[in-house]
Amino acid sequence: MVTREMSESNVNVEKDVTLNAESEAVKVAETVENKSTQENDEVAVDNQVENQEAAPEATPEPAKQEETAPAQEDEPQAEEQPQEPVAEEAQEVEPENEEMSKVDYSSLDKAQLVEELEKLLTRPVDSVKEQVAQIKAAFFAIRKEEVAKEKAEAIENGEDEASFEAKEDELESKLKGLLVDFKEKRAEFNAEQEAVKQANLEKKQAIIDEIKSISQDPDNINRQFTHVQQLQQEFKAIGEVPSTSTTDVWKSYQQAIENFYDLLKMNKELRDYDFKKNLEIKQQLCEDAEALDEETDVIAAFKKLQALHDKWRETGPVAKEIREQLWARFKTASSVINKKHQAFFENRKAAEKENADAKTALCEEIEKIETEGLKTYAAWDEVTKQIIALQEEWKKLGFASRKVNTALFARFRKSCDDFFAKKALFFKSMKEELAANLAKKNELCEKAEALKDSTDWKATTDALIALQKEWKTIGPVVKKHSDAVWKRFISACDYFFEEKKKQTSSQRSVEHDNLKAKKEVIAQINAILEAEETEDAPQKIRELMSKWQSIGHVPYKEKDKIYANYKEAIDKAFEKFDMKAFRARLSNFENSISQSGSDKVYHERERLVRAFEQKSNELKTYENNMGFFTARSKDGNSIVKEMERKIANLKDEISLLEQKIKIIDEKI
């Protein structure tokens, strides 16, 4: 019952954070490596500029071109496309898109949606993808409502929900066919685009190779300036290339252009101006990176650092003499954030390990719980409390690592489910057993009620005693029925025995005389206790005990009360006069208990409790049977006296057992 209350949304968030952190850590490593390459490239460009300062100055046209020529290092920007053709294309597509954007597909019915989809399939697939998706969503929303309505009507008409099948919809089949056609057209379009990109790659590579070839002829470099400008325009006009080649192609192009303009000896003042602007940008980036050290959110600081690295890569070079120093400053600030980021994940990893160890311990603890020996409701409830306590501890623990968290939760949940499944089976079996016991006791009640009005005193007495013995062999019943069924049974028995007592009223006068005699014995014992002379008190007590044993039966309602008074007086006498026989038995028992181990003491206590219950049951049986005899005959009187003697002995033995159990409880 755990709470399967370890939620899945929290696990997904934890996975996302870990994955993002790992990908970002890889990105930092790649950024630093690429940055190192970039700065080396900047050094190479500066060296080439210095080496060309002695060469003849280039014409003003290359200097002018430098303002538009790319001066980036490694990272490609989005490739520029010819502006005029794009504008024209936009003018051509715009009316169609405007017309399609006005359509509210959610307001159309299925037939209209299919018709609109057919129209869209006549247009270029790359321009209608969004509209197709909207039509699909609108159509299946309508279809879902139709199916739900059909299902509700079918169920209302008596059809089984599990066997329900929606009716075939021709428009749905047609729509699916059109969607398949659209998917095929998109696949063809994508294949064509990949072929175009591959052709573009070959064209761009040819231009790069031609620029490199021009740079190999420094004597005629000025003559090739116009041609290189044309090549640049052609390069820009060419469309996209495969994504796997974009970076390499752009780097090669950048390198070729930079080499060409270095040979032309770009205008030094413009280059210094670029250096100045780049320096300002990179100094600000350094300050921003250093300020991240104050950021309390390590993850947010790390993400901001990635953005700063991206901007650094996009920014051009600075003067060679401060290049390494500036990069070292930025790198140092980055290292501080990277170390914090690494420490954050290491600490979290340590916390996850602690949580995993704690959860493993809880799993082992719950798996050790044995259910084979649980035979009572109280025992099952006690173990249930332990299970719930373990579940509460589990809820307090945080997540473990992604590799083990789900497995640990499944392990813990399985143990909880197994326990509560076994508990449910036990309660089910006990419910059946208790119900069977109740049926048996109700049957005995009916038999007792059928006998209670009988005047065949001897036969009915034997029958009721047999029913009482059978009652004792039947197990417990449900608590809410226990008292009622017992009162019903005992009421029937008591009614019979009360009626029997009325028929034997002559014996009652004798019982009242016996009651007076026993009260006199108790009074004499109390008088001895109050007297100052104690020399022969033990002997007198023993004589009074013998006298008590010789006195006959007392009224049934008074027997427990009078015996309790007698036992109280005798206990006081034993205590005051140190009655050695009784005391010696208790003393020997106490000595043997002191010399025994704890296991043996517990076993002895269980034995004494069982003996106490057995003697108590025997006493009840004798006391019940006393009501079945009369003292009219000589034999009957002797039997009554013998039973009274046994009852007195049982009471003494029960008293001794109570004292022994008390001694053990004090020792434990």
Average pLDDT for all residues? 75
SSE-based structural type: mainly alpha
Approximate shape: elongated
Instruction: Work out the helicity level.
Output: over 70%
Number of helices: 21
Beta content: under 5%
Largest sheet: none
Characterise this structure.
The chain is built from 21 helices and no strands. The chain is mostly helical and about 675 residues long. Among the domains are: about 100-190, no CATH class; about 500-665, no CATH class. About 15% of the residues are buried. Residues about 1-95 have low confidence and may be disordered.
Please supply descriptive tags for the structure shown above.
668 residues, mainly alpha, elongated
Write the layout of secondary structure elements.
Layout: H1 8-51, H2 60-66, H3 83-101, H4 110-120, H5 129-156, H6 170-215, H7 225-237, H8 246-263, H9 268-291, H10 298-314, H11 320-368, H12 377-396, H13 402-451, H14 457-473, H15 479-503, H16 505-530, H17 537-550, H18 559-577, H19 580-594, H20 598-626, H21 634-667
